[in-house]
Structure formats: C-alpha cells, structure tokens
Amino acid sequence: MQGKRLDRVNQLIKEEISTLLQRELKDPRLGFVTVTEVETAKDLRVAKVFVSVLGDEHTWASSLAALASARGFIRNWLRHHLDLRVTPELDFRPDRSMEHAARIQALLRDLDEGSRS
Fold this sequence. Notes:
This protein has one domain (about 5-115): K homology (KH) domain (GMP Synthetase, Chain A, domain 3). It has a three-stranded mixed sheet, sandwiched between helices. By secondary structure, the protein is an alpha+beta fold. Helix 1 packs across helix 3 (about 70-80). The N and C termini lie far apart (about 55 Å). It is built from four helices and three strands. It has helices at about 5-25, 55-70, 70-80, 95-115; strands at about 30-40, 45-55, 90-95.
C-alpha cells in the first residue's frame, strides 16, 4: 500500500475510533481517552492505536483494560464504517508523550521561578 494512502487509512481509523469512544462506548472503566496516533501495517493486518488517558495510573490501567475488552466491538464497528478490504486487528498502546511534556513544562516553570527569586 502506498504511503499517502496508508496515511489516509491511519487518519480514518483514528477519527472513527475517536468518534466511537465519545459516542458509543459506555464502559465505566473508560476514562477520558484520546486517540493520539494510529500506525497501520502495510498489509492492513494490524493497527497500533496510541492512546492518551487523563488521570492517574489506576485510570490508565482501567482504561487500557476497557479498550482491550472492547477490541472486537471496535474492530466490528470499523468493519461497518470503513470501506476496506481488510479490517486490521487493533493493538492499543499507551502514549505518555503529553504527560511527559506537561512534566517538562512544570520543571521549566519551577526553574524559571527559582531563578527570579
């Protein structure tokens, strides 16, 4: 599959899963989850879905567990909403880059306030 087409497929999968998480999935274990990126294999057999969760470690763990248990439902949703020959298996992975960026910003802010004193 060509690079630009694969990018479009990744974007479509990201948008559909985001919509599904906002409107359809009603699992109480699911926290505030954001799909940050999707990387689909060239043969469309597997898609790595990177998610960010707002909250502590318990919220992360329960949200990832909820996504893992809803994997089949989400894949079936994609099968009906996307016009693809193959619907990829979904592999949900944590993306802690936003959490990391916020921590770095806090450290820089603390350094800046410390230098002013």
